[in-house]
Amino acid sequence: MQFTLPRPRFESLRRDLQLLRRFGQLVLDTVLPPRCLACRQTVAEPGALCATCWSGLSFISAPLCPRCGAPQEMAGTGALPCNCARRRYAQARAAVLYDDASRPLVTALKFADRTALADLFGRWLQAAGAEMLADADLLVPVPLHRWRLLWRRYNQSALVATALSRRSGVQLLPDALLRPRRTRPQPGLTRAARRRNVRGAFAINERHRLRLAGCRIVLVDDVLTSGATLEECARVLLAAGAVEVRALTVARVADPA
């Protein structure tokens, strides 16, 4: 026999729990006030940046290339103002430019166990990718090779994608892509070398092949540089039957060259 609380009593219990959580947060903020995720200065609420760190970020907004999302004075005319027409992913967007202000935040999540940044980045991506998320079927993070995942203990792209899924309501398929071949780090490589480095590095998780067919997929990663990694992931997903692949990253370099 199933037992259910009478609705008035349930509502009262829920209000009491909400008040208890608020009181607990107030006590915690008094003892350990929330800190800026970048500089550790005191801020008004947890998971936020102070005004100084926030103002230093270069958030990407129009005008930009309608396809790859690069900041462009010519964007919005209907033409493709930059050389992105051959990309396998249909569209790309990023929240901020990858510069001296955003780089420490991105690398702190990636290498310094600052996983609280994932929720902040999820909020940024929800705003930056609102248009492409509106009719998306799945979120798929760019995967790590198993040995790199073991060393790092988490996939930063998967953490951001999880936060974004929670906020946007778009379903997350965290292991849709696998990375069976270990690749060398991309920084320092030329554009052509980056493409060679990731060629054949990704594969479909066969458990999800049928789920991917016919879907509009949003790839999630931390930084867009040359686009080689996203391009290879998109190629694999399209070959598996996805109807369209879009790319959403926390940051992007202003000039991939």
**And the CATH topology?**
Rossmann fold
Level-1 CATH class name: Alpha Beta
Helix- and strand-based class? Answer: alpha/beta
E-strand count:
7
The sequence of SSEs as H and E is HHEHHHEHHEEHEHEHE
CATH architecture: 3-Layer(aba) Sandwich
Count of helices? 10
The fraction of residues in strands falls at 5-15%
Mean pLDDT comes to 84
Show unreliable segments: 74-81
Biggest β-sheet: strands ordered side by side in the sheet: 1-7-6-2-3
The percent range for helix content is: 25-40%
Give a short account of the largest sheet: 5 strands, parallel
The overall number of domains is 1
Q: What Rg is obtained from the alpha carbons, in whole angstroms?
A: 20 Å
- What characteristic shape results from the CA principal axes? globular
What distance separates the N and C termini? 67 Å
General description of the model:
There is one protein chain. By secondary structure, the protein is of the alpha/beta class. It contains ten helices and seven strands. Strands 1-7-6-2-3 form a five-stranded parallel beta sheet. The protein has a two-stranded antiparallel ribbon with strand order 4-5. The chain is globular and about 55 Å long. It starts with 6 loop residues before the first helix and ends in a 5-residue tail after the last strand. Mean pLDDT is 84; it is low at 74-81.
